[in-house]
Amino acid sequence: MDFEEIYREYFQEVYLFIKSLSNDESIAEEITQEAFFKAMKAIENFDGSKDIRDWLFTIAKNTYFSHYKKKKKQIDLEEKEAAMTGVQIVKHLMNEEDAFTVHQFLHSMNEPYKEVFSLRTFGELPFEKIGRLFGKSAGWARVTFYRARKQIIDYMEEMEYERN
Question: For a disulfide at 63, which of 35, 37, 128, 140, Cβ 3.0-4.6 Å?
Fold first, then answer.
């Protein structure tokens, strides 16, 4: 059996398996494609001692978990960065004059940045709920929040520079 036949015969099963792990069609498709690419590169190492379907599922499962770990590290890094810059914003909000400046700048910000930042900071809503409010994903809400926060921090640094 050549690799093209293997691909045609098992792609759907592997895709459904990964979809059951990820609950996300686009991730399942991406991981399945990557798993078959890895299998194609390693097909000469397949000795037939195991069922090819099991071999493909093992590659797919390992590919999924590698993807998940990499994504988790990226989110953890973003959260650490958020905590650091979040402290800066909290410091500004504790100072009455700075708090007024932050609110003044926030009022002039474009949507959706203004609303996403307010919902997250003052409403303490999780990214999943903010995303749902806008009909978008939690990832979209997270990125929008970080961009809004960066705008505010840049503005506050600029104001601090002008004062000194």
Answer: 35
